[in-house]
Amino acid sequence: MMRKVKPYLTTRKLHPENQESPIHFLRSLSTPANYFYRRNHFSYPELSQSSLWIQIGGLVSSPTFLHFDDLLAMPAKSLVVPLECAGNKRAHFSPKVHGEQWEEGAISQGKWTGVPLRYILDRAGVLQNAKEVVFEGADFGKKEDVDKVIPFKRSLPLEKAMHPDTLIAYKYNDQPLSFKHGYPFRLIVPNWYAMASVKWLRKIKVIPGAFEGPFQTNDYVFYPRKKDDIGKKPVTLLNVNSAIQQPLDYSILDTGTYKIKGIAWTGEGNITSIQLSFDNGETWVNANAEQNADSPYSWVNWSYDWKADKKGEYTIQSKATDSAGRTQPLKAYWNRKGYGYNAVSKIHVKIE
């Protein structure tokens, strides 16, 4: 009797743990928790009873602590949201850049349930001169370019923090968050790269100006030049992007009809088309997209029936376009930290 083979995560680093989702073998709208990619800057935190509390302070009229049970009693909201590491596909940059050499699997998606951050900030009473909201996780460590132990901290502009779909989540796919993905609380920021969705959330602070922590002003910044910081800009919205899930790169296939499958996603509007090319971009055909009307943030599954009746080697390319008019470029926007790779996706196959 043949044993059923299951996919598994691809390890990029053990300490701290960074692992890719087996994205090429997953088709459902929700990634199972055990297949969700893992991105860490530090070792996993040690949690205690105090981890069940969130502190809300800074420029608010009523600073407070909220317990896990307090959040459970508040109005809840559920959203299907993909989280993509800003370094996803970094391995494809040319010239190469330092950092985790993610391929296509630093993205996963599922149903997040929690309390809109806006509800909590409104209860606390945000003061008039507030500009940003800072989020601190329980994970900490020593950063190479900072000569001290620091926690992971990020901020959002007040407008984004007050968006009704920015959540403090405590469930994933209707189950409590797993420890490795932020239990008991994590921030979920739709449409932004996942560095904004702070895990193991323990402190929220409203401030009057721009936060300047190292994960805000040094990391997660586009630096378009090798030697200086001219033209730098923050990493925020997801780029329009796609991935070919099947067939796998460098597959050897017989002649016949094959279903090309993949996903496409964006941080602005929604995906309006996915096109494929089998002749190095000379001509393009439209793939069939499975729109998710009830899940406006979710990725789009797409497919195309390809009649491979001629032997030879082929490069299959996919490009997505969104309702904001953005299309995947032929060449990615190179930046020295390797963020936001979204060039036209491609695989190579041989028909024998």
From TrEMBL:
Residues 235-350 form the Moybdenum cofactor oxidoreductase dimerisation domain. Keywords: Metal-binding, Molybdenum, Oxidoreductase. The lineage of its organism: Bacteria, Bacillati, Bacillota, Bacilli, Bacillales. The keyword Zinc-finger does not apply. It comes from Mesobacillus campisalis. GO terms for biological process: sulfur compound metabolic process. Pfam families: Mo-co_dimer, Oxidored_molyb. Its cofactor is Mo-molybdopterin. This is Sulfite oxidase. The keyword Metal-binding applies. Residues 41-212 form the Oxidoreductase molybdopterin-binding domain.
